[in-house]
# Entry
Amino acid sequence: MTERKITYLRVSVTDHCNYRCFYCMPKGMPEHLPHSEILRYEEIDTIVRAGAVFGINKVRITGGEPLVRRDVVELVRKLQDVEGLREICMTTNGSLLAQYARPLRDAGLGRINISVDSLIPARFRRITGGGRLSDVFNGIDAAQEAGFTNTKINVVLMRGVNDDELPRFADFAAGHGLEVRFIEVMPLSQSVEDSAPFFIGFDEIRRRLHNLHSLERLETEPGAPAQLRYRLVGTRGIVGVIAPISRPFCAECNRLRLSADGRLYACLMAAAHVDVKSILRASGGEARLIDAFGRAAALKPPCHNGCSSTLMSRIGG
Ligand code: SAM
Ligand code: SF4
# Structure
């Protein structure tokens, strides 16, 4: 039984996405979940309320692509009322943010992370299976105009795919006053062999950043995934590295993950979970849901095995 304090819940609201990033949705992926298996917003709300009693104080809405699910702004608004939650954030591919940034801000969303793996339109299209980079740029601008601050850009850095853009991303961070975080690619259960040739680890990313810029080391929050953060000296830009494979942060990990089909996972990379949807649909009251959070927390492994247990798009990356 773990003694650590679990305060952060990532909620995947859909397994659908308008992109097909090859490292996230490998070919031959299983069908989408049937509609009846996906949690309804009222159900997510009920589960989050129980989570808040358990000790959750931060929720991140993710997917799949959260903005493809209808009325996700309503979910943000609903969650605003949950007592004990101090922050609701979102991770998105940014493609629909131009339309949603303002309503999300008005609904009370706190912060946004936007995933962008290339700043070259043709390459971006290849990586995402058809995405339009200009949509994401418009989304980033809209987020800034809507008043979002502390916006972070997530880049899965892959050898021979986009690693030559590391300097360009650093310039992008500096030019826009944003934080760009380079993420190690993780193998998925369906495509273990697929990601290995692309993998670039923490040490190499750090070395390449050091070769580029004058960097000032910044503090990292305990439990935060970015193990290394630097200010690009003389700018408002920040760069960071998230290294779940070569520097697992399991010992400080304070999060649980609610999948789109209502399973509470202790770890992105462990199959063990508690089926909260079944508890809820069997008319389990709040006490049983709170107990489910405790049981999921107790499933946290001492350290992960380096391989995602289920589809990223179901569990939320
Ligand atoms: N669609 C949204 C997006 O792309 O930001 C939210 C869901 S996505 C699954 C969340 C994050 O997981 C993204 O930053 C994505 O790059 C990351 N991700 C997906 N598959 C990954 C993998 N195999 N290795 C590392 N990160 C991955
Ligand atoms: Fe979609 Fe995000 Fe996965 Fe890309 S990483 S396919 S945008 S869910």
About this structure: The first strand starts at residue 8 and ends at 12. The mean pLDDT is 90. The domain at 8-315 is CATH 3.20.20.70 (TIM Barrel).
